[in-house]
Amino acid sequence: MNIMKCAILIFLALLFIAPQSMATNSAVFIMYHRFGENNYPSTNVRLAQLENHIRELKSGPYTVLPVLQILSYIKNDRALPKRTVGITIDDGFESIYTKAWPRFKKAQLPFTVFISTKSIDENRSNRLSWNQIREMRAAGVTFGAHSASHLHMVNTPRNRNEAEIIKSNTRMTVELGEQPVIFAYPYGEASNEVFELISKSSYKYAFGQHSGVISRFSDKKYLPRFALNEKYGELNRFRLIINTLPLPVSEFTPSSPIIGKTNPPNVGFTVIPSLKNLNRISCFTSEEGKISTTLLSTSRVEVRMTKPFIKGRNRLNCTLPGGGGRWHWLGAIFVVPKS
User: Fold this and answer.
1) How large is the average pLDDT for residues 61-90?
2) Which domain holds residue 274?
C-alpha cells in the first residue's frame, strides 16, 4: 500500500472516531505521593480523602486495572471498559505501606509505585524499605523507576542523567530480580534531551505530572496523570477528573517543554477532526488563569498568554465540553530552567 493510500485511511479513521469510542480506548491515571502525612499538604492526601476516593471507585461506574495492562490495551487498540482508571504513586514514602496499601488491598484495587532508589538504600525513616517493597510486590503491587536520587533532570547534565538511569535500574534489578519497564519523571519535568535518554533505555513507557487522559494518541514517553493532594483531592474534583475524556491533538507547539527566549511561548495544537465545537474550548495557565484562545480553522487552536512563565514548572490546561457532564482534557507542563 503506498504512502498516499495510508494517509487517506488514517485520515478517515480519525474523522469517524467519536467521543464514545474514545471513552473505550482511553484511561485516566491518578497520582499520589503521601497518605495521612498532614504536615505535607502539597503532596499528601488525608486518609478521609483517600477513603472517599476508594469508595467512589468501588461504587461508581469505574474499572480500575493494573497500569501495564491498561497501557498494553491502548497500545494494541483493544477496547477498555468505559471509565477505566489507573492508580500510580510516586517517590516511595512509607505511608504507602502503612496507610495506602492496606486500604487498596482491602478494596482489591491494583496500583503501581515509582521509587527513587537512593532514599531506600539510605534507610530513611519515612521511606519504604526493600523488604516492604518485596512484600508488596509479592502481593501484586507493581514498581517502576523514578531515577536514583529524584533530581531535576532538566537542570542536570546528560552524563549525570544517564548515570542516574543506570544506577536506578541496577539497584531495582538487584533487589527485585528484573529491570523496570516503566518510568516516572521526578517532578514531572522533562526535555527533548531527557526524552531521548528515556527512549534509549529499557523503559517502554514514561509518565509526567501534567493533567490529561491517556489514549492511543498519547506520547508513550510522556504520559499524563492527574496529581492529587489535599487541595485537589476533594471528592467533587476527584469525580470530575476520573470522568474526563481525552483531547487528542497533533502538531503541538512548542515542541519542547523547556522555555527559552520566547516567554511566554506561542502555544498551538491541532485537534483530531471528530471533535466539534472547538469554539467552546477554554485554556488556563498556572500563572495567568484563563487565557485567550483563537480557532484558526475547524481543528487548529492557538493559545496566547500575556504574562511570561516563572522559573520552574508552569502548567497549561485546556478543556472542552464532552457531553453528559464530562470534559475533554489536555494538560502540559512547561519548565523555565532555574540556571
Assistant:
1) 97
2) 250-336
- Give the span between the Cα atoms of 42 and 30, in whole angstroms: 15
Q: Assess whether 105 and 225 both reside in one domain.
A: yes
Q: What angle do CA 246, 248, 249 make, to 5 degrees?
A: 150
pLDDT digits over 13-48, tens only? 443 344 445 556 899 999 999 999 999 999 999 999
Using the 3D structure, point to which of 183, 216, 245 is the last residue of a domain: 245
Instruction: Give the model's pLDDT for residue 1.
Output: 42
Domain's final residue, options 192, 216, 245: 245
CA proximity to 42, closest of 221, 236, 209, 241: 209
Q: What is the structure's pLDDT at 274?
A: 80
Q: Are residues 211 and 71 in the same domain?
A: yes
Q: Cα Rg for the chain, rounded, in angstroms?
A: 20
Here the CATH number for the domain that contains residue 262 is 2.60.40
Going by pLDDT thresholds of 50, 70 and 90, the confidence category of residue 11 is: very low
Q: Do residues 62 and 80 lie in contact, with contact meaning Cβ atoms separated by under 8 Å?
A: no
pLDDT above 60 (res 175): yes
Whole-model pTM: value is: 0.92
Distances (CA, A) of 316 to 230, 259, 269, 270: 21, 13, 13, 16
Task: Report whether pLDDT(234) > 70.
Answer: yes
Q: Where is pLDDT greater, at 23 or 189?
A: 189
DSSP state of 264: S
Report in angstroms the alpha-carbon separations of 334 from 210, 211, 238.
Answer: 9, 12, 24
| Helix, strand, or coil (residue 133) | helix
CB count in 10 Å sphere of residue 44? 23
pLDDT of residue 8: 36
Q: In this structure, what CATH number is given to the domain that contains residue 12?
A: 3.20.20.370
What single letter denotes the amino acid at residue 280? R
- For residues 216 and 264, membership in a common domain is answered with no
Domain count, the chain: 2
Q: Measuring CA to CA, how many Å separate 288 from each of 60, 84, 225, 262, 312?
A: 35, 32, 22, 17, 15
